[in-house]
Amino acid sequence: MASYQKLTPRSEDYSKWYNELVVKADLAEQSAVRGCMVIKPYGYAIWESIQAELDRRFKEKGVKNAYFPLLIPKSFLSREAEHVEGFAKECAVVTHHRLMNDPNGKGVVVDPDAKLEEELIIRPTSETIIWSTYKNWISSYRDLPILCNQWCNVMRWEMRTRLFLRTAEFLWQEGHTAHATKEEAEDFAKQMLDVYSDFVTDVMAIPVIKGVKSPNERFAGALNTYCIEAMMQDGKALQAGTSHFLGQNFAKSFDVQFLNNENKYEYVWATSWGVSTRLMGALIMTHSDDNGLVLPPHLAPIQVVIVPIYKKEEQLAELLAKLNPIADQLKALGIRVKVDADSKYTPGYKFADYELKGVPVRLAMGGRDLENNTIEIARRDTQSKETISLDGIVEVVKNLLEEIQKNLLKKALDFRIANTREVNSYEEFKEEVKKGGFILAHWDGTPETEQKIKDETKATIRCIPSIELPGHRTDEPGVCMVTGKPSAGRVIFALSY
Question: What DSSP state is assigned to residue 494?
């Protein structure tokens, strides 16, 4: 079980609170490899829940899973100039294929005779290897569309890492689709953004803003990047998912053409889209508190934990005779339940541990409850508890789980609304952005102005919003806060992870 030592308060040191929580809640830890993490069983169980629900939604869209190689020939990356420029500094390169004993007796060294004819890149993303493969799969319009996804690991050689949020190696899914028309590809990219938005909102209880990335913030090689942005409790933004309209760039780089129904050759249109274990960081920083994780019921590996409080084995048997049928009824409803009768830990230890791990609902029953036909029910989101009748407890728990799910979403949305504000001058912007939150401001649409703002304030354009924001109009024209030039509407600026 996890240690339930007190966490550093968020108000005292938010970064330290986060790092401690990830480790103490048994989610992940640093590995022996610099910048890489070990995801522990409890953390991986949450990731599996994310994976399973997203996978189901992808397949409803007709997407099929496949797997492509980890290693990419270096020449492939060179074929798409903008793409390689975007990832070149993060690439890990394999140069040799064999080790040998050091002649000087100092362990092992690279065998100089085993140098690869062509160096290989550990995938930072898979567009190039996938489009080299699609060339073999596509010849006619009848072969389209191709809707593929892969669940895998990727490597981007990050210098500053933080568990889940930014690691050199991380887990993700990457979808790659091929289409006959521009309209079909663009539409599919937007559909997948909607899948992400619905999932993060409905399952993770994180409110997001859908929008389009500015040219400076687009995915390398994309014509358009659609995104969802979320606000963390410290007021920083976190990109929760992206979907890219790639146009024909990769098709042209790898000469992927198809014979259309008019017997003419055309280049294929492409999308790619992905989310990663960064969602785990978003989950932690959106809902959790100074006592530990707070997990939305739709995602929690354990939705309900049941703890019998007993002195002797005979009393435990009586309690379990009452509690096991309740657990069975909850499981029959598809609710994930754990009955913890382990004698190695005290009830107080268990309560603190399950609180730290964010289990949404806790039921506890002792000898007096047995006599009175009652049970204690505690909810993690509000840390409230009460003793109620055992009669109808299954229905009470079922309804409470949905209430907690809705409450977490509302709380996060209220926080975002309270920390979203408009500014009209650059001086005001410089002061307001330091306070965190989303800043709605006019921008003249130029990369130069965007870069100037980033250089001077560290704030970036998170997105050009495509949805209405409560209490704000972002589509009204104005003038850029920096240059005074015309602006089509307000965009969202923030400090970010």
Answer: E
CATH number of the structural domain spanning residue 485: 3.30.110.30
At 297, the amino acid letter reads P
β-strand partners of 362: 305, 378
Burial of 31 (0-12, 13-18, 19+ CB in 10 A): middle
Q: What pLDDT, on the 0 to 100 scale, is given for residue 1?
A: 54
Give the DSSP letter of residue 308. E
Structure tokens, 109: 């060294």
The string of pLDDT tens digits covering residues 218-233 is 998 899 999 999 999 9
- Taking the complete model, does pTM exceed 0.90, yes or no? yes
Q: Which residues pair with 493 in a beta bridge?
A: 439, 461
362-411 per-position pLDDT tens digit: 999 999 999 999 999 999 999 999 999 999 999 999 999 999 999 999 99
Which CATH number fits the domain that encloses residue 350?
3.40.50.800
User: Which sign does the torsion angle of CA 470, 471, 477, 479 carry?
Assistant: negative
Secondary structure (3-state) at 12: coil
Position 299, amino acid: L
